[in-house]
């Protein structure tokens, strides 16, 4: 039954490995093309807004300069000032002087045609007035935008507001309109009537109609709105261009994932089923590797290590079946099985030897287990063993999610357990990271011990632990020179083949008793 479920699972994963990367590459190609489309549309819309504000600012500046003149109205000096302002301001076509909304003279006319401007279309908070009008003192029928102060007015060609070249290869249209009366000021192309109706809603800033995307921005201080739009029909061409990049990547990922899954299936299908059988049949054993005090050579404790004996008498490496247990969701079941075996093996002996501890390795999943703390408590109570005799070893990656793990660790410490960081230096460690951890012991990984003379990081790790008042345990000590170096540098404990390999329970108790009697 388990084999059938395993095959169904891997078949599903294999199908996903084939389909998902290719599907994601197609999705990503479309996403990138759309992002580029909207980015270019937004960029052009923002540039139109900037241009509109620039033109308005220049108009205000021109009006301030005109209002600041002191010469008599329409005198040669006054007219020269108006002409100088029109000449030096890029977007200004004409500057007029008015009396009661009637132009009297301008930068183009010494004596203007007597026309009367209607009430303004918009009055800004700063008092400047705005018109969209074809009325002018030249008698021309030409739509212009005007901005006026109390006595002066500047005429602006509406094209100035939208005379911005798009950065996109695709055609982007734009329109400037008045917010107060919904008047069109200038447009590069007629706007459909149904779009006009939609943009009247002040809450609408983006809409899509008839394969066209419309972007609406409003400038309340100017009483103006800007619409930019572009057809989505060229998107298909952009998507095809993106597919030239993303589809090969998706196909390669799919092939690679398929190859890896087939290898994984071949290697893991049978061991996983065997592990389930091993857990159910109590086939997994626990061996104990002594941990020695470097100061006096006396045993301080031992690390409990799982051993899985195969039918041919060999042992399967924990580096294989521990990750397999994690991948298949069996790690907590395996850990709880090991905990029960530790107390069954050493319960009476640990009660007689309160100075000796046993270290148990916990995975990230074990920290989330709601049943493991209860199991430990019940076993300690049953055998009459102090909680401080059980040290919990957690790898560095177990601290990556502090919001989840720290409360669990705090609970274990309150129960009396000591906490050790296992395989230190191979994961996510840093000084700031260590300062935040409520732990007791730091275990230096074997890779650092093997290269003491060539890796200058090891002394820094030791000094870091001293600064934080953490005990240190060196793993994988195999030579006397390593032992001496570690002792000289202040490491308190060591374990490794220099002292003993991991031993079955009977051999471990004999070894430990011999050591204790010798010291």
From TrEMBL:
Q: How does it sit in the membrane?
A: Multi-pass membrane protein
Q: Which domain of life is it from?
A: Bacteria
Q: Does the keyword Transmembrane apply?
A: yes
List membrane-spanning regions: 243-265
Residue span, EAL domain:
268-516
Q: What is its EC number?
A: 3.1.4.52
InterPro entries xrefs: CSS-motif_dom, Cyclic-di-GMP_PDE-like, EAL_dom, EAL_sf
Identify the GO cellular component terms for this protein. Answer: plasma membrane
Q: State its location(s).
A: Cell membrane
Just give the chief location class.
membrane
UniProtKB keywords: c-di-GMP, Cell membrane, Hydrolase, Membrane, Transmembrane, Transmembrane helix
Tagged with keyword Membrane? yes
**Which reactions appear under catalytic activity for this entry?**
3',3'-c-di-GMP + H2O = 5'-phosphoguanylyl(3'->5')guanosine + H(+)
Q: What class of enzyme is it?
A: hydrolase
> What Pfam families does the record point to?
CSS-motif, EAL
Q: What is this protein called?
A: cyclic-guanylate-specific phosphodiesterase
């Amino acid at each position: 039954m388990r084999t059938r479920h395993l095959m169904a699972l891997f078949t599903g994963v294999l199908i996903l490995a084939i389909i998902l990367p290719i599907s994601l590459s197609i999705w990503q190609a479309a996403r990138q093309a759309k992002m580029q489309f909207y980015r270019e549309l937004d960029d052009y819309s923002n540039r139109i807004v900037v241009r509109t504000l620039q033109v308005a600012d220049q108009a205000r500046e021109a009006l301030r300069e005109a209002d600041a003149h002191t010469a008599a109205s329409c005198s040669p000096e006054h007219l020269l000032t108006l002409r100088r302002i029109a000449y030096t301001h890029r977007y200004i076509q004409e500057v007029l002087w008015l009396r009661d909304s009637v132009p009297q003279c301008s930068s183009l006319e010494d004596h203007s045609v007597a026309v009367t401007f209607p009430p303004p279309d918009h009055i800004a908070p700063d008092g400047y007035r705005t018109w969209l009008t074809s009325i002018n003192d030249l008698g021309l029928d030409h739509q212009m935008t005007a901005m006026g102060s109390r006595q002066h007015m500047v005429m602006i060609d509406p094209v100035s507001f939208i005379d911005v070249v798009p950065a996109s290869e695709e055609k982007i249209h734009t329109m400037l309109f008045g917010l107060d009366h919904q008047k069109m000021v200038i447009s590069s192309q007629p706007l459909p009537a149904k779009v006009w109706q939609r943009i009247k809603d002040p809450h609408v800033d983006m809409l899509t109609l008839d394969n066209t995307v419309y972007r609406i921005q409003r400038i309340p201080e100017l009483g103006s709105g800007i619409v930019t739009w572009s057809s989505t029909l060229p998107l298909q061409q952009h998507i095809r261009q993106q597919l030239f990049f993303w589809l090969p990547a998706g196909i390669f990922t799919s092939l690679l994932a398929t190859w890896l899954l087939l290898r994984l299936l071949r290697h893991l299908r049978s061991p996983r089923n065997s592990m389930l059988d091993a857990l159910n049949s109590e086939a997994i054993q626990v061996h104990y590797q002594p941990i020695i005090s470097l100061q006096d050579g006396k045993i301080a404790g031992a690390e409990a290590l799982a051993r899985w004996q195969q039918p041919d008498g060999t042992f399967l490496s924990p580096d294989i079946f521990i990750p397999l247990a994690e991948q298949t969701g069996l790690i907590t079941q395996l850990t709880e099985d090991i905990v029960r075996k530790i107390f069954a093996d050493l319960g009476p002996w640990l009660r007689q030897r309160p100075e000796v501890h046993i270290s148990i390795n916990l995975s990230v999943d074990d920290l989330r287990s709601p049943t493991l703390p209860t199991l430990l408590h019940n076993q300690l109570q049953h055998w009459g063993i102090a909680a401080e005799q059980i040290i919990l070893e957690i790898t560095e990656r177990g601290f990556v999610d502090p919001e989840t793990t720290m409360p669990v660790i705090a609970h274990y410490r309150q129960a009396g357990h000591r906490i050790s960081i296992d395989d230190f230096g191979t994961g996510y460690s840093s000084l700031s990271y260590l300062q935040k951890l409520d732990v007791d012991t730091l275990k230096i990984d074997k890779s650092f011990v093997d290269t003491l003379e060539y890796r200058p990081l090891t002394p820094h790790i030791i000094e870091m632990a001293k600064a934080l008042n953490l005990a240190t345990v060196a793993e994988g000590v195999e030579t006397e020179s390593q032992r001496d170096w570690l002792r000289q540098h202040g490491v308190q404990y060591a374990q490794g083949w220099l002292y003993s390999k991991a031993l079955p329970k009977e051999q471990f108790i004999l070894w430990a008793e011999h050591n204790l009697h010798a010291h």
